[in-house]
């Protein structure tokens, strides 16, 4: 039995130690390269204070690692102090049915996790983001978001988990196939629900009125070969000064969302280039390819879960009754979850190619690489993104190429000499 405990600890603690080491390596590499390229950052990105960039990335990385290690420590203490077995005994003693037991078990874990994360979210918002002038939230708005987010997570998580637990009870041998199909289907449904139902719970979306911006967006859609979808601005400035835009949904639910901060900071050609980039992900079928890759990855994970849930040693590790399949599923997930992080480079390689293709598409649509390059520079400057991530860290965590590489690439699409000068 000791070997199974050793394997579990190796996966949980070992993977976290690896990611912590990569985070430290990334911060140091970014600081060193930023100081070495301070002139380029000033002239091309508009970052006058390299120290501010370094301090922000150091602060966020440090908080992220503190949160990860704290949550891992709480998990291990709960496991090895017998809290898992006590929870199962309490649920069985309450006379609940197997599915209701499992639902209460997982929703309880979800609630505890969100409570444990709350202090870190508070610190990030009201200390780090406040220090670097990102935060626009009031404590009241933060509490509202936290409460609504928790309710949404419990409702949606409860619906999905309840369906999965029902499949386990109905088809105990091949349940993992049904559960996998449920999760894939849930992801597709969320593409419809999120923009129309969930996102409006947190932000206000206003249709872009007729005018210069509306005409510019319609023009990009026409050039990209799309019928114009619903176009909205989102009141992101209520919470943060960061810039972003996204294109979500499919079919009749497609919509373009522009952060109001992005509209205020970027020029019209820059906004057009950002939209053209987002449209490329649909034009080139990146979204569907990404969903397909995610489905394959999830399918492998569920196959592993299906094997582990039937293993008697899994329940013996923490003195769990064999009838408590939901508890066995949780322990099995602890073995499988670290593998998602460790195999991230395989998936990220696909998205790196997609992002490069989308940048090239944006240049082709605009007929000029400079608006996209300027937009990337503005996004990096306003968001204080690390322009020089360490390659090892980026392999595990980044789905986008580094900003300097992207700027050089889009400029080289129409002006190789200009791209070489910006290197």
From TrEMBL:
Cross-referenced InterPro entries: CAXX_Prtase_1, Peptidase_M48, Peptidase_M48_N
Record-linked Gene3D superfamilies: Metalloproteases ('zincins'), catalytic domain
Keywords: Hydrolase, Membrane, Metal-binding, Metalloprotease, Protease, Transmembrane, Transmembrane helix, Zinc
Note describing how the cofactor binds: Binds 1 zinc ion per subunit.
Swiss-Prot/TrEMBL GO biological process terms: CAAX-box protein processing
Binding site for Zn(2+): 277, 281, 355
Active site location: 278, 359 (proton donor)
Regions crossing the membrane: 6-25, 66-83, 89-112, 146-168, 174-194, 299-318, 324-347
UniProt xrefs under Pfam families: Peptidase_M48, Peptidase_M48_N
Similarity-based family: Belongs to the peptidase M48 family.
Name of the molecule in the record: M48 family metallopeptidase
Source organism (scientific name): Natronoarchaeum mannanilyticum
Biological classification of the source: Archaea, Methanobacteriati, Methanobacteriota, Stenosarchaea group, Halobacteria
């Amino acid at each position: 039995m000791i070997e199974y405990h050793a394997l579990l600890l190796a996966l949980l603690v070992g993977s976290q130690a690896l990611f912590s080491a990569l985070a430290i390596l990334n911060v140091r590499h970014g600081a060193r390269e930023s100081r070495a390229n301070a002139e380029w950052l000033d002239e091309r990105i508009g970052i006058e204070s390299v120290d501010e960039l370094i301090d922000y990335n150091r602060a966020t990385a440090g908080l992220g690692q503190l949160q990860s290690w704290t949550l891992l420590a709480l998990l291990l203490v709960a496991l090895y102090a017998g809290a898992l077995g006590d929870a199962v005994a309490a649920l069985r003693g309450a006379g609940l049915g197997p599915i209701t037991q499992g639902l209460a078990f997982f929703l309880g874990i979800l609630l505890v996790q969100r409570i444990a994360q709350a202090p870190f979210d508070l610190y990030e918002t009201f200390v780090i983001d406040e220090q670097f002038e990102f935060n626009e939230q009031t404590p009241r708005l933060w509490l509202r978001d936290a409460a609504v987010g928790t309710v949404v997570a419990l409702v949606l998580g409860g619906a999905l988990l309840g369906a999965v637990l029902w499949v386990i009870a109905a088809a105990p041998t091949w349940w993992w196939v049904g559960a996998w199909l449920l999760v894939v289907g849930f992801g597709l449904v969320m593409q419809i629900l999120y923009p129309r139902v969930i996102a409006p719970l947190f932000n206000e979306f206003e249709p872009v009125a007729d005018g210069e911006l509306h005409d510019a967006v319609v023009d990009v859609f026409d050039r990209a070969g799309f019928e114009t979808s619903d176009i909205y601005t989102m009141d992101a400035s209520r919470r943060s000064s960061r810039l972003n835009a996204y294109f979500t949904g499919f079919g009749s639910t497609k919509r373009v969302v522009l952060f109001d901060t992005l509209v205020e900071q970027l020029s019209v050609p820059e906004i057009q280039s950002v939209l053209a980039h987002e449209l490329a992900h649909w034009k080139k079928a990146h979204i569907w390819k990404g969903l397909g890759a995610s489905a394959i990855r999830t399918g492998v994970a569920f196959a592993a879960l299906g094997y582990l849930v039937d293993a008697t040693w899994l329940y013996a590790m923490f003195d769990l009754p064999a009838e408590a399949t939901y508890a066995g599923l949780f322990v099995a997930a602890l073995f499988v979850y670290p593998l998602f992080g460790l195999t991230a480079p395989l998936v990220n390689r696909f998205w790196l190619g997609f992002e490069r293709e989308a940048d090239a598409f944006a240049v082709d649509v605009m007929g000029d690489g400079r608006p996209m390059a300027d937009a990337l520079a503005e996004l990096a400057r306003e968001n204080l993104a690390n322009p020089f991530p360490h390659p090892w860290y980026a392999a595990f965590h980044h789905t986008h190429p580094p900003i300097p590489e992207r700027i050089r690439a889009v400029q080289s699409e129409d002006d190789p000499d200009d791209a070489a000068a910006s290197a």
